[in-house]
Specification:
Blueprint (H helix, E strand, L loop, with lengths): L9 H32 L2 H26 L4 H24 L5 H29 L5 H30 L1 H19 L16 H13 L2 H30 L4 H25 L7 H21 L3 H29 L5 H27 L4 H19 L3 H8 L7
């Protein structure tokens, strides 16, 4: 299939608008589910368990389902993923309507949602380089993420008001319909089929094949390892920001909520920058390195500051830079990976990040019991600076990120 030179071609638009609609519905559903479970059970533990059940399948099944993405029709996975999620959430709505809804049903739907996401996300990520030209891959990733993040911010902003006025069933219904709408439009997307690997070994052999491919490129190994360490270290910081704000009378939970919103807006701005600025292949390493160091150092300065407006501004800018280096890494990894290996590589990369972040949260929580949260966060920043310096400032990373898919470096 010949790729169109313009970014907003028919296939990309169909994928983008489907994600925009379903992400908005998902944001409403998440808020409605949280409030509803608390009302129904009065237990934050039950609510946390249900939320965790969405993540667990992505961590446990991610590599396996990533291999599946490289074996089957990715368009079918995308459509089926949205279709299953839509039907399962509508069944919850019907169960609520007839008064037979049970907690185990919500848990089951959470698991189903997690499983669908585990193969849906790698299928989408591995398809983008096949429906836009190489020079538009980074912009396509940025615009796609803008749809997701923007819809989530908008949905979260309206979620509380909609819940108080309409209640959980209506919000469940909206999300179910949004997934079905996405599935119905995604049917018309044209994505090149992957060369089947069914006759080329078992799932285990194909998983090892994905690992062996990554090991061929030291630069790829380094950026993936960098992502792993950043997710761990800032998993520690993320969990300690709350006690830092709670224990400081000049900050407090209200200002923490504003800080969270500032981070989301910063991410959105970072995506917007990459969606309108065409970064040359020869400049990607510099963009990646500068944005990565800027992210870390701005968090470090914010942790040392006692002025709320400075903290707010630095976190806003930091998370804009975070999105820039993440998008450069993700786009380059997908561009450098052959089409029949993208699913497993994408799932491997995502699983490593998702698995280590909760562990960082746990370590941060444990350390916060015995030491000042700001002290722990600052040490984490110092460790991040050292880690980046050792891993990223290396010629293989520059070669990997600056590689031009036309064959010129």
């Amino acid at each position: 299939m010949k790729k169109e030179s313009k970014l907003w071609n028919r296939n990309f638009f169909l994928l983008w608008q489907g994600q925009l609609v379903s992400a908005f519905g998902d944001a409403l559903y998440t808020i409605a589910l949280s409030f509803f479970v608390l009302e129904l059970t009065g237990s934050t533990a039950v609510m946390g368990t249900i939320m965790a059940l969405v993540t667990v399948p992505k961590v446990l099944l991610g590599p396996l389902l990533g291999i599946m993405v490289d074996r089957v029709d990715r368009k079918k996975l995308i459509v089926i993923g949205d279709l299953i999620r839509g039907v399962s959430i509508l069944l919850v709505t019907v169960a609520f309507r007839f008064g037979i809804l049970k907690i185990w049903m919500l848990m089951a739907v959470a698991v189903i949602d997690g499983i669908c996401s585990a193969f849906f996300n790698p299928a989408v990520e591995s398809s983008l380089p096949d429906i836009v030209t190489d020079e538009n891959v980074m912009r396509a990733n940025s615009v796609y993420q803008i749809a997701t993040t923007g819809a989530e911010i908008f949905g979260q902003s309206l979620g509380g008001a909609i819940y108080s006025q309409l209640g959980a069933p209506v919000m469940f219904l909206i999300n179910g319909i949004s997934y079905l709408f996405s599935a119905s439009t995604e049917i018309f997307i044209k994505i090149p089929n992957v060369v089947s690997e069914k006759s080329k070994g078992t799932f285990r052999e194909n998983f090892k094949d994905g690992i062996h491919f990554v090991l061929r490129y030291e630069g790829m190994i380094r950026v993936i390892v960098m992502s792993f360490f950043i997710n761990f270290l800032f998993g520690i910081i993320r969990v300690l920001i709350i006690p830092w704000f709670v224990d400081n009378p000049q900050l407090g939970m209200t200002r923490y909520g504003v800080l969270s919103a500032a981070q989301s807006i910063g991410i959105l701005i970072g995506m917007t920058v990459l969606s309108v600025v065409r970064v040359k292949a020869s400049q990607k390493y510099n963009w990646y390195k500068i944005s990565l160091f800027s992210f870390i150092l701005m968090i470090g300065v914010a942790v040392l500051s006692n002025q709320y407006w400075i903290i707010l501004l630095l976190f806003f800018l930091a998370f804009g830079f975070q999105m820039i280096f993440n998008m450069i890494m993700n786009s380059t990894v997908m561009q450098r990976t052959p089409v029949n290996k993208r699913g497993k590589v994408s799932a491997m990369k995502t699983t490593l990040g998702m698995a280590i972040s909760p562990f960082g949260n746990f370590v941060g929580g444990m350390l916060g019991e015995v030491w000042n949260p700001r002290g722990i966060m600052f040490v984490s920043v110092l460790l991040a600076v050292i880690t980046v310096s050792v891993i990223v400032i290396h010629p293989t990373v520059k070669e990997f990120l600056n590689y031009d898919t036309t064959g010129q470096k």
